[in-house]
Give the backbone structure.
Amino acid sequence: MLESSFRNLVAPGRFPDQLLAQLRRFTTSLIEQGYAGETVRLKLQLLTNFGQWLRRNDLAVTNLDKRVVEAFFKRKHRVHRGDLRTLQQFLDHLRGQNVVPARNLACDRSLLANILNRYETYLRTERGLVAVTIRGYLPFVHKFLLERFRGKPFLLKAVKASDISDFVLRHSHSMGIKTAQLMTTALRSFFRFLFQKGELQADLAASVPTVADWRLSTVPKFLTAEEIERTIKACDRRTATGRRDYHPSSTRPSWSSRRGSGRSPARGHQLESRRNPHSGQGIASRPDAHS
């Protein structure tokens, strides 16, 4: 489906070959990152409109920078939530492909920019992380530092374990589990970097809380045939509530076959008999019907 959407939105001849190739690579990277098909399609649709605007203004893909993106949005009639993020992602993708110059954080001589620049270099050269992973880590680290040192001297040695746990607890509630786990992974990586480079006297990576994602911690999406059988038998048919619960649950044989587990012919016959009280067999045909 995505391939057909790509062909329909980004038909050959509508864009320069270089832009067409980068759009295809960017689409592939979105899929590899786990974006839903509809989300990828919407991002691609925005980038198609952006590419047409570039062509009308005689701008090549190599001319892209933050100012070009801002100019596009000024002329766009309707801006949807996430549009700016999409173009920023595409611009970062082009930087990673060396199509446009990389951001030069060194021009910002602040201590914050310096440590972020060093951390980015560490991830790329010493840890060997790919650009997509680095782009996932940096926003969380940047946000932590901004909140911790807002209106205060930028002293990394002043960071305490409670600062880290407070930050994680403050933000994790508004995130999905996977995003929260990415945040804690990024923070652990950053504090290991600070410890290795002598910026901290203690390794605060261990102070980053763990985001729980226990197996079976949520309502199961299906029940096996054995689980359905145990559920049915658990109904106390000596009470009105038990008899009420027993009959609806025992007339849903499709539950046991959701994962292709199937039913034996005897089990299927018993269930059909329950549904047809005139068959002459009824519920009493079950061995445990009067137990």
The chain has a mean pLDDT of 77. The radius of gyration is 29 Å. Residues 37-56 form the longest helix (20 residues).
